[in-house]
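Lab notebook page, bench 4
Experiment: in silico fold of construct C2
Operator: M.H.
Input chain length: 247 residues
Purpose: comparison with the prior construct
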Amino acid sequence: EGREITGGRQSNSWTVGHAFDRTLILFWEGTRSEKSSKLNGEAAVSFFGRDKPLHTLDLNALDEWVDYLKSIGNSNATINRKMAALSKMMSTAADRGGLKSRPKMPRFKESVGRIRFFTDDEEAKILGLARKWGLEDVWDALVVLIDTGLRPSELYRIVPRDQSSIGNRSAISVWKTKADLPRTVPLTTRADQVLTRRATAAEHMDDKLFKFKPRWLWAQFCRIRDHLNMPDTLIYTCRHTCASRLV
């Protein structure tokens, strides 16, 4: 499936499959974006075929892929991510002598979208229904997410030893973040009570305070939002709510 060229000599020897394999090993494996990058790269391999010569992917070929992606309902943002993965594969090949030139990748305007947040009344209804249905874990998780602005991925990593303070105020320290910038977040009284209660129940200081799976929380949240007719909300709306209130 093509070979890497040394000594600066360029050829068109790489296939789509070889470019994907090398890019995965050299740039994507072990990174936080490995899963999404791999999926986006695999989308190109699936459409064009592993044995397709990489240099034959001209603008016409890319247009055909775009038309297909739109036909299956991909948004402009999703198409851009898949094009970016293919672009990285082409760069990998070009930098290693396996591709003489590459086309300019098309890019599509992405909608900013509406930044949705919960009103006080909506929050009360959501938390009230969680309590009514006996979903205490959901109530705890949503309270912490709304009052701290933590990302869901950060919530699932919290352990008892992460509780700290800022002056005389309780706080939670988040060490592994999307931007690789640890931060300490002040807690409201109710968020502090939730975390303290769950930390007290933990057997070890390294026990996760929220042990349930993300898909479970998402499924329970969907039950609640559908019952309350709030189809335009997500768990991430909790983070938007916190930010909006701070503003």
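Observations: The longest strand covers residues 169-174. The first helix runs from residue 16 to 28.
Next step: discuss at group meeting.
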